Description:
By secondary structure, this protein is α/β, with parallel strands linked by helices. The protein contains seven helices and nine strands, in the order βαβαββαβαβαββαβα.
Amino acid sequence: MPGCFDLHLHTEASPDSLLRPAELLEACSRLGLAGVAVTDHDTIEGALEVLRLAPPGLQVIVGEEISSRQGEVLGLFLREEVPAGMGVWETVRAVRSQGGLVGVPHPCDSWRHVLPLEVVEELARTGWLDFIEGRNGRVLRQENNRRAEALGRRLALPLTAGSDAHSVWEVGACTVLLPAFAGPQEFLASLSRGRLLGRPSPPWSKMGSVLARLRRLSGVS
């Protein structure tokens, strides 16, 4: 049965996120989400905690938004953390070596540390790229989401969508309606039949990242 999946989320394991695992799970229940991909910055600690706490019926994909030297990479279906600071080719090989999937988050957002277009195209051409994030809830200019979706279609890659939530107010802002799947390859097949849904998060929701950094600087838990 099809369900909505938010495929890009950050818990408080990311230094710029306020979202606690329990809050995320409450939001998933309230919004009726079928599943999430937890993709903290350079760690899978938050994803593993959400997986541990998740109720039956909620699919949790362990992921990571990895800071390669050339730009950010999304790894999904991970078993081990991928270190930050490696070259992009070393990063994607580390994801694939554990059976994970490689994606590019917010590929056309000039405000973020994105991979250069020529690198994205080379990854796709050589078969090292599994998906493109076609819709991201934190992209301020929706033209950039439209460009990302067009890029994925031009490269003949499946498209994902995610809120990129850093606070509970953002969860579910962008989702993909997917048929049921089990495991990475079925996930890719489902994406080919998926439908991108949602809208950008309101600008005030970005204050969550600022508050998270202030909280950590002040030592408040």
